[in-house]
Amino acid sequence: DQQVKQNSPSLSVQEGRISILNCDYTNSMFDYFLWYKKYPAEGPTFLISISSIKDKNEDGRFTVFLNKSAKHLSLHIVPSQPGDSAVYFCAASASFMGSQGNLIFGKGTKLSVKP
Amino acid sequence: KAGVTQTPRYLIKTRGQQVTLSCSPISGHRSVSWYQQTPGQGLQFLFEYFSETQRNKGNFPGRFSGRQFSNSRSEMNVSTLELGDSALYLCASSLVVTTSTDTQYFGPGTRLTVL
Question: Which of A92, A99, B50, B61 is deepest in the core (most CB within 10 A)?
Fold first, then answer.
């Protein structure tokens, strides 16, 4: 049973436009959410995170929105650049797990930004 | 500050053999987590170590084990390798895991191929 779902395996966006990547979760105990970006043959690179006490967090071109009632979060990239082309993973963790050492990942969305 | 390092980067083994992978966390980070990434299952949590103690464990068989040394470096071992163990093994470190809001930073991974 997937607790973190990224229902779009791929997304294609024109350079300069907005990219919106979505993530749904089922476990209401999750209280910390992260987005990672991954290139082939490399480890995931941390992008941005959000605690469940917030509904928005911004860092440069990246903004994460959290809708707890819908158990949904999204990552907005504005403006999108060709270098943003990668696989994006949504991850979640919960205090009840005893530590943040256990991240639950979605399957990823492959973003392609076309020049 | 140097990132998380993993050795070796690539490894080829045959069924039935055992393998040991190594991870050096970011300086000052005390928690090390291990993940397995496969095309079918995505990123799955193996275990997490903090202060040389395993604090959390994922749903993997006992053939997968690990340990952490006093300098926070960690190793994971897989015994009696199976073809299905072929995967990218990722190590992640975090500063202090006392809450659920501690970000994990990943290494480049070790690509294990079992023939």
Answer: A92
